[in-house]
Design brief:
The complex is a heterodimer of chains A (394) and B (98). Chain A contains no helices and 29 strands. Chain A has 394 residues and is mostly beta strands. Chain A has a single domain (60-65, 93-372), classed as Methylamine Dehydrogenase, Chain H (7 Propeller), CATH 2.130.10.10. Chain A is globular. The model of chain A has no long low-confidence stretch (mean pLDDT 94). Chain B has a single domain (2-93), classed as Ubiquitin-like (UB roll) (Roll), CATH 3.10.20. Chain B is built from three helices and five strands; from the N terminus they run βαβαββαβ. The longest helix of chain B has 11 residues, at 30-40. The model of chain B has no long low-confidence stretch (mean pLDDT 93). Classes of the chains: A mainly beta (394), B alpha+beta (98). Chain A binds chain B through residues 35-36, 57-63, 76, 78-79, 85-86, 90-94, 97-100, 126, and chain B through 7-10, 13, 38-48, 50-52, 57, 59-60, 93-94.
C-alpha cells in the first residue's frame, strides 16, 4: 500500500508526518534542525527519498540540508558525511549555502539595484531561500526562490547554486520593491510538458514566465488590479501570494493575490477574477485537486490587516467549477474562536484517490483531509507556527 | 592555540561539543580567526559573516576579555590573552529583545 509523507516546515524546526494510504493514523517525527526556521521542505518527484530543506536564521543565515533516505539522515550537500571537510587545497566546501547574485557581464549584465521603501535604488541583498522546487525528472536539479527576489538553480544535488540572472535583468527590475513581508520569490511552477517553461511569483512584484529555460522572462500580470498601488493596472507591483497549476492543464493558472482570486486560461498572458461568492477574497495559499483540474481550494482570510479567518471560523473553500462558485468546507475544522493564519507555502494535495488535502496554521496545527476536503482532522495540534507543508506518496 | 566558543546552533552545524581550538598563522585578528574557523569547519562559511562580503552578520556579536569587539575593524589584533590562548574568543548570537 502507498505511504504518505507530509513535510512540514515551522518557525522552530522541520517535522515529518507519515501514514499509510488510509491517512487515518499518523506518526510525527521531529523536530529536525530544532530552533531554526524551516522555510521549506520538498522532495524530488522522481526520487521521493531525496529531500531538500531550506534552513534559515536571522542570526546565522542560510543553510541547505539534503536527505537521501527520506529524512532519516541529513547532510549539507557541500559537505557530505564521511568526506574530508576541506578540498585538497584547503579551501572551504560550504558552497551549498552560498547564494551569490550573478554580477558577471557575460550573463546579461544583471541589475544590481531595485527600488527601496523610500523610492531610492537599493542593492540586492540575499536574505534566505523561501522555496525549493526540485526538477520533475532529475533529483540533482533544484530551483530555489530567494529573498531579495531571484531564482537560483543547482544541477549537482545542491552542492552549488547559480543564479538564473535573466529574471532580475527583466526591464521592470528597478521597479520591484519589497512589501511588508519582504521581496521574496515564493512560487516556482514547472511544466512537465515543456521543460523550458517555468512560472514564478514574487511578493509585491508579480508573476513572470520563461519559455527558454530561464534566459528571458515575461511579466504576466495583465488583468490583475491592485487598488493599493498608484497605477492599479501596472505591469508589475502586484502582490501575488500564490499561483497553482494542474499538470494536465498547464496553460490554466490559478492565483491567490493579496486581494482577489484570479484565473488565467492562456499561460498567464491575461487574468480574470474568479472570487465569486467567497466571504473574502484575501488569502495566501491556493491548490488544485490532483485529479480534477477544475477543482480548486483557498482559505479566505479576513483582510490584509487582520490575518485570521472571518468570524473566527476556519473554512476551506472549494470550487468545482474552476472558480466563481465556492462551497465552504467546515467538517472537522474549528468553527469558533479560531484566529490563526495559513501562509502561502503551507498547503498541499496528494495524488491518492480520493485526493488528500493538507494545510498548516500559524497556531501549529496541521490539518488533513483524505476525502478531497469533505472532512478534516488535525494530524498534529501543537507544532511551532507552520511555514510550509508539502506531501509525497512513496 | 586560539580558543573559540560558538553558539549552540553553530556547534550543532559543525558537529562539535565544547570549545574550538584553532591554529592561526600570523597576526591574530577577527579575520584570521574566522578564516581559520571556516577552513576547519567549512559548513560554517556564511553563518558568522556574509558569504560574499565577509561582513559580520548583523545579529552576531564578538566578545573577548569582557569587551564587545563586534565593531572593531576585522584586521585589528585581538587582545593578547586571546592570542595566547588564555581567554576564549566568543561568537554570540544577539539576544532577541522584547
Amino acid at each position: 500500500m502507498s505511504k504518505v509523507r507530509v513535510l512540514v516546515g515551522t518557525k522552530k524546526g522541520a517535522f515529518i508526518l507519515t501514514s499509510d494510504g488510509k491517512r487515518k493514523q499518523w506518526k510525527v517525527d521531529g523536530p529536525h534542525f530544532g530552533g531554526w526556521e524551516i522555510y521549506h521542505v520538498k522532495g524530488s518527484p522522481s526520487h521521493p527519498n531525496r529531500l531538500y530543506v531550506s534552513q534559515t536564521s536571522s542570526w546565522f543565515g542560510q543553510i541547505i540540508q539534503r536527505s537521501d533516505d527520506g529524512g532519516k539522515t541529513w547532510h549539507q550537500p557541500g559537505t557530505p558525511p564521511g568526506e574530508p571537510l576541506t578540498t585538497p587545497d584547503g579551501m572551504p566546501k560550504g558552497e551549498s549555502n552560498k547564494f551569490a547574485y550573478d554580477t558577471s557581464a557575460k550573463t546579461g549584465k544583471p541589475l544590481t539595484t531595485h527600488q527601496w521603501y523610500d523610492g531610492t535604488q537599493h542593492p540586492w541583498e540575499f536574505k534566505r531561500v523561501w522555496h525549493l522546487e526540485p526538477s520533475l525528472a532529475d533529483p540533482d536539479t533544484v530551483y530555489a526562490g530567494v529573498e531579495d527576489a531571484a531564482l537560483f538553480k543547482t544541477t549537482d544535488g545542491g552542492k552549488s547554486w547559480q543564479e538564473l540572472a535573466g529574471l532580475r535583468g527583466h526591464k521592470s527590475g528597478p521597479q520591484w520593491a519589497p512589501g511588508a513581508g519582504g521581496m521574496g520569490l515564493h512560487t516556482i511552477l514547472l511544466d512537465k510538458n515543456n521543460p523550458k517553461r517555468i512560472y514564478i511569483a514574487i511578493s509585491s512584484a508579480g508573476t513572470f514566465r520563461t519559455d527558454d529555460g530561464g534566459k528571458t522572462w515575461k511579466a504576466i500580470n495583465q488583468g490583475l488590479r491592485s487598488q493599493y498601488i498608484p497605477d492599479p493596472n501596472a505591469e508589475v507591483g502586484h502582490c501575488v501570494h500564490r499561483i497553482a497549476m494542474h499538470p494536465a492543464q498547464p496553460n490554466v493558472l490559478f492565483m491567490q493575490k493579496h486581494w482577489d482570486v484570479m484565473r488565467s486560461d492562456n499561460a498567464g498572458d491575461t487574468w480574470h477574477e474568479v472570487s465569486g461568492n467567497l466571504p473574502t477574497d484575501f488569502g495566501f495559499p491556493i491548490e488544485v485537486h490532483s485529479h480534477e483540474p477544475e477543482t480548486i481550494y483557498v482559505v479566505p482570510i479576513k483582510s490584509d490587516s487582520e490575518h485570521y479567518p472571518p468570524e473566527g471560523k476556519l473554512r476551506v473553500y472549494r470550487s468545482k467549477t474552476g472558480g466563481n462558485e465556492w462551497e465552504a468546507l467546515t467538517k472537522g475544522l474549528p468553527q469558533k474562536d479560531c484566529y490563526v493564519n495559513i501562509l502561502r507555502d503551507a498547503s498541499a494535495v496528494d495524488s491518492l484517490e480520493p485526493c488528500g488535502v493538507y494545510f498548516g496554521t500559524t497556531g501549529g496545527q496541521v490539518y488533513g483531509s483524505a476525502d478531497s476536503g469533505d472532512t478534516w482532522n488535525a494530524i498534529v495540534h501543537d507544532l511551532p507556527p507552520v511555514l510550509s507543508v508539502e506531501v509525497q506518496i512513496y | 592555540m586560539i580558543r573559540v566558543i560558538l553558539p549552540v546552533h553553530l556547534r550543532t552545524l559543525a558537529r562539535i561539543d565544547g570549545e574550538v581550538k584553532l591554529e592561526v598563522k600570523g597576526p591574530v585578528t577577527q579575520c584570521s580567526v574566522l578564516d581559520a574557523l571556516e577552513n576547519k569547519y567549512p559548513m560554517l562559511a556564511g553563518t558568522v559573516r556574509d558569504h560574499v562580503t565577509k561582513k559580520r552578520r548583523p545579529l552576531v556579536r564578538f566578545y573577548a576579555c569582557e569587551e564587545d569587539l563586534s565593531h572593531e575593524p576585522p584586521d585589528t589584533p585581538l587582545p593578547e590573552a586571546v592570542a595566547a590562548g588564555k581567554e576564549p574568543f566568543l561568537i554570540v548570537g544577539a539576544v532577541a529583545g522584547g
